[in-house]
Amino acid sequence: MPDLYDEVPYPSLPRPQSHPSRIAALAAIAGMTPPPVSRWRVLEIGCGDACNLLPLAFEYPKGRFTGVDRAAVPMARGRDMAAKLGLANLELYEVNLLDWKPNGEFDYIIAHGFYSWVPFEIRDRLLALCATALSSGGVAYISYNALPGGHLRRYVWDLLKFHTSRAASPRIRIEKAHEVARLVAALPVDDPGRAAIRREMENVLERGSEAIFHDDLSETNDPVYLMDFIGHAARHGLQYLGDAEPVRDDVRDLPWPAEDWFEARQYGDFLACRKFRESILCREQIPLRRVLSLDRFQALAAASRVKPAEPQPDGAQKFELSQGRSLTTNHPLVKDVLCFLASRWPGSVPVTGLPLGGYPPEDAADMLMRLVEAEAIEFWQQPPRVAMAIGERPVASPLARFQLSLGLTMVTNQRHQSIDLPDESGRLLVSLLDGTRDREALAAAMGRVAPGPEGAPADPAAIERALQVGLQEMLRLCLLVG
Ligand SMILES: C[S@@+](CC[C@H](N)C(=O)[O-])C[C@H]1O[C@@H](n2cnc3c(N)ncnc32)[C@H](O)[C@@H]1O
Questions:
Q1: CA of 300 to the centre of ligand 1 (A)
Q2: How far is the CA of 49 from the centre of ligand 1 (A)?
Q3: Residue 302 banded pLDDT, cuts 50, 70, 90
Q4: Which of 132, 146, 263, 442 could form a disulfide with 259 if both were Cys (CB 3.0 to 4.6 A apart)?
């Protein structure tokens, strides 16, 4: 039987939260001593076309990267890309995880979009592999659909599967799934239950066809409670360190007391109706510190892409976060730290350089963690190589330039994020930024490639303006290398 991942390609993207430097930062905050960048050995299970591993292998040539996936077509795509990029530090194995034995240890094991989508035998093998192949100070990142939010999603999965069960091909299944999702989303909403269902269907419609096919119509789709995941890990001698995705639930303000740190998180999931987790595991022998301490932040770098709005008359400050969210605060420490980091974006700042002076260290540590949870700050073990200003001869990410040369419009930036460049002039600019051209040469090259109306010479002032705007945008998008 053909592998469904061969028949319908999965729309894989790099997962910023799985970046070893970010996982290492969270491990350090929990009291671990993660391996230094120069020694990274990274394994990804169910890596698809290796689009998460390729940028890492490219950016960290001294690291060793290994990917495992049983689907032939995405693997071939990954190998082809690795060969074109000349990567000698990436090995890709096309094999069923059940039949694969690692030769050596790994400091980071990543499995994104895998655990709850595969039968129990395979997810159990994943944890058994973590137990045997993680280095003593290593950490595993495992994402999965979570309960109780998975109950809501299960309604959608069951309806979509029921409606598409007689479809003769993947293409027809996808069409029928779209059809029913559209129809349900358009039904009048006259009670809160319907409203929740409509939201779920709208979420489905926001995903592309291929993601619907593999994520919502997947044969196996078994979301788990955090406590069950923790229990499963414990049976393999692994312990739960925390989550890579910031936790947006209210574990700090539970309406009733929790027995311990773990139970608080499970209650948080109940109250937030959490649907997805990106959990980090390490060996059970490692003593983790659940009480935050500023010392453990000190070796890290912080970055924040918040945008401060005008201060409000009462002194409160609003910050725009991603995805239309915002944070408004009156807390002087939060205001100082976020304004300081925003002024340094796209650069990162050593934690030792943050304006934390005058505050008790435990309050500062607590505030920093709250900002991580609010997705207002991210920490890195080693800051990414991002330009903080536009240089004389700016250099755009060589990987992004390579991706554009293949005709792609989605590129990977220096923070391991996917950036869509739908505009041809933006793509042209990135392609030109190879470090050989100053502003004059860039303007001349842009004028040659994009002349004015009806082939007339382009207006030099208009080109200069477009160049300035374009460079600023590439800087903001972390596409320039520092
Ligand atoms: C949902 S995709 C996720 C791909 C990628 N990690 C991502 O997030 O874009 C799941 C991947 O797991 C792979 N897979 C599923 N079962 C597997 C098994 N038993 N052994 C190896 N790979 C498997 C599939 O081929 C597929 O590429």
A1: 32
A2: 9
A3: very high
A4: 263
Task: For residue 461, give both structure tokens.
Answer: 């002032």
In angstroms, the CA 470 to CA 468 distance is 5
Torsion (CA) 155, 156, 162, 165 in degrees, nearest 10: -140
The residue type at 445: A
For residues 95 and 85, what is the distance between their CA atoms, to the nearest angstrom? 23
For domain 294-380, say whether CATH 3.90.930 is its number: yes
Residues paired with 471 in a beta bridge? none
* R_g over Cα of the chain: 24
What integer pLDDT is reported at residue 44 of this predicted model? 98
Most distant CA atoms of the chain, gap in Å: 74
Tokens of 78: 């990954």
CA atoms within 13 A on the CB side of 279: 29
The residues pairing with 239 across neighbouring beta strands, listed in sequence order, are 282
Q: Which residues line ligand 1 (CB under 6 A)?
A: 5, 10, 12, 46-48, 68-71, 74, 96-98, 112-114, 117-118, 122, 214
Tell me which residue has its CA closest to atom 24 in ligand 1: 46
For position 428, what pLDDT does the model report?
Answer: 94
Q: What is the pLDDT of residue 455?
A: 66
Convert the pLDDT of each residue in 406-452 to its tens digit.
Answer: 999 999 999 999 999 999 999 999 999 999 999 999 999 988 876 66
Q: What is the CATH number of domain 4-145+223-283?
A: 3.40.50.150
Q: Is 197 helix (H, G, I), strand (E, B) or coil?
A: helix
- Cα 291 versus chain centre, distance: 26
Question: Best substitution site from 4, 10, 145 to test ligand 1's pocket, by max atoms within 8 Å of Cβ?
Answer: 10
418 residue type, one letter: S
CA proximity to 288, closest of 424, 412, 139:
139
3-state SS, residue 84: helix
Provide the phi-psi class of 289: left if phi over 0, else alpha when psi is between -120 and 50, else beta: beta
**Domain residue ranges of the chain, discontinuous segments joined by +:** 4-145+223-283, 149-216, 294-380, 398-476
